[in-house]
Amino acid sequence: MSEVYAVRRGLLRDRCAAVGSAAALVSRPANVRYLAGGAPPGAVLLLGPDEDVLLCPRAPTGEPDNGRTDDQLRLALLPSSGGDDPAVTAAGLVTASGAESLAVEEHDLTVSRHRAMGSVAPRLRLTDLGATVEQLRLVKDEEEIACLRIAAEITDQALGELLESILVGRTERHLALELERRLVDHGADGPAFATSVATGPNSGQGRHRPSDRRVEEGDFLSVCLGANYRGYRCEIGRTFVIGTAPAAWQIDLYDLVFAAQRAGREALVPGAAYRDVDRAARHLLDSAGHGECLAPWTGHGVGLEIDEDPQLAPAAMGKLDACVPVTVEPGVHLPGRGGVRIDDTLVVRPEADGGPELLTITTKELLAL
After folding, report:
1. Against a cut of 0.90, is the pTM above it?
2. Residue 142 burial (CB < 10 Å; 0-12/13-18/19+)?
3. pLDDT surpasses 80 at 188
4. b/e map of 105-133 (b: 16 or more CB within 10 Å)?
5. Residue 21 binned pLDDT confidence (cut-offs 50, 70, 90)
6. Strand 125-128 relative to strand 220-225: parallel, antiparallel, unpaired?
7. Is 334 helix (H, G, I), strand (E, B) or coil?
8. Are strands 101-104 and 74-77 parallel, antiparallel or unpaired?
9. Where are the alpha helices (DSSP H) in the chain?
10. Residue 173 burial by Cβ neighbours in a 10 Å radius (0-12, 13-18, 19+)
């Protein structure tokens, strides 16, 4: 993997050189991990004119959540007395090297941190690196996709086991905690995000925070969860009916959301505009009179973060590339009644390779549990 990280850093260095910057400072944790293999808490990565350095306020602990740092990268530990900011230290190193400018992630740095860097290196010109690293992260290599595939397998296993247990009478909060425990039991480093379990009138809400409401007969039950495996995060969402055969309105609503989700999935082809994927799913729900109930997006990218670019939304600019993993997650929530969400993680693939690769395979049939 050392070669992979070196290539990624080389691509970033080339982009910086193209805009006249000899050095770059990466501080956003997911971006540090992408370029360095690991991101110990508080660490920043300096791509200098002479060498690349990972500056850490404390020694890496080796925790899986932080990844494993590239052995070929120089590790610089700050004095144990504490209080030193790695970003400020990096600015001093760049100045000492004779470089005149440093590209930084202004969207990640606080104003006070930016000022502190300027005070230590007043002659150093700080330029904005922007979302350059995030753009590099968009298209995943096959090793990254393999991690996402394992994360999805773990997530499917955890959800499948829950569906085999007795659910009536248990609270949303208890079910969410059990799902997160099962993720870890099956090999996840942890949940990809806070697990959502929503029942009855809460069902169908995006990222509902689990409450003490108990599961009742006839409820819709919406679940949204994902595993974090080696830093890579996936997402799955399913809706079920509890106990009895679903009511007619539940079947109709479920079939509608299912059709919208299928339309969104089928639109995932290389070259498709982000907004067109959103429109494919949104049009069906809007035409059925649910336009006001819809989320502002139909899906989003996943990887080292659960909400990455691209955003599949009405005003999103850009087109899909092959090997970009995204979610397709339309849903409808009817206030006071509940609703349906269906969410999958897929990888964009060309038609010649079989079309979009579905990573989350738990059935989308409307089951009565």
Report:
1. yes
2. exposed
3. yes
4. beebbeeebbebbeebbeebebeebeebb
5. confident
6. unpaired
7. strand
8. unpaired
9. 2-18, 29-36, 86-97, 111-120, 132-137, 142-163, 172-185, 248-266, 274-285
10. middle
Strand, coil or helix: 189:
coil
Structure tokens given for 340: 């349906």
3-state helix, strand and coil shares in percent for the chain, rounded to the nearest 5: 35, 20, 40
Partners of residue 319 on adjacent β-strands: 273
Longest dimension (CA), the chain: 73
What is the C-alpha separation between 197 and 338, in angstroms, rounded?
12
Give the C-alpha distances (Å, rounded to integers) separating 208 from 18, 199, 243, 339. Answer: 44, 10, 22, 12
Alpha helices in 209-247 (DSSP H): none
The single-letter code of the amino acid at 130 is: G
Cα 322 from Cα 352, distance rounded (Å): 11
Strand, helix or coil for residue 342: coil
User: Collapsing DSSP states into helix, strand and coil, what is residue 116?
Assistant: helix
Amino acid letter, residue 292:
E
Tokens representing 72 are: 């070929």
pLDDT of residue 80: 67
As a whole number, the mean pLDDT across the chain is 94
- Provide the sign of the torsion angle of the four alpha carbons 297, 299, 301, 302, taken in this order: positive
DSSP letter, residue 22: S
Of the chain, the percentage scoring pLDDT greater than 90 comes to 83
